[in-house]
Amino acid sequence: TMPAARALKAEPVDDFAGAKLSLHIEFEAPTHGRSMRDRLLVFKPVLVSRRWEGILAPGVRKTPVVFEAFTMKEVSEFELPEGFKIEDMIPPVDIEAPFGSYKAKGRLNDDGKFVFERDYILKPSVIPPSQYKIVRDFFAKIIEAENSPVVLAKE
Question: Can you list the positions of beta strands (E) in 29-113?
Fold first, then answer.
């Protein structure tokens, strides 16, 4: 969630034949980020959290974990505030498991915008209770990656 975000444009594209839905959204959130000592600006590039935290409770599992097929690709572009440059960004993330994968990376594009991309794939799977730790570890790594900040510094 982003406080004080204002939607500017939303364009859905439904490729029914290809079984694909794309959604292009533009919005502005001038207060997204936290200023530190008037020199740094810190923000999290994951704009829409998928709320993994509550999915898999700790403890012993007695029933299998069942996943349906799911694919999500997200690309977010951030216009850097004037006078700021990237000081620290999220290292690339590549998480693989027998039932899915998660990849995320950030980069500075030619226009000087910070671009954050993430891909998330779940395969149709039934994971037995004995392999529950693998599932929990997979989502714990995703949560860690999605909570990682980008740090901007005044030039």
Answer: 34-36, 40-43, 65-67, 70-78, 84-88, 93-97, 100-108
Exposure string over 54-86, b if 16+ CB within 10 A, otherwise e = eebeeeebeeebeeeeeeeebebebeeeeebeb
pLDDT tens track for 1-36: 455 677 788 888 888 888 777 877 777 776 677 788
Torsion of CA 105, 48, 19, 106, to 10 degrees: -10
Reference 123, options 99, 94, 142, 103; nearest CA is: 99
Query: Could you give the CA distance from residue 98 to residue 57 in angstroms, rounded to a whole number?
Result: 20
pTM tops 0.70, yes or no: yes
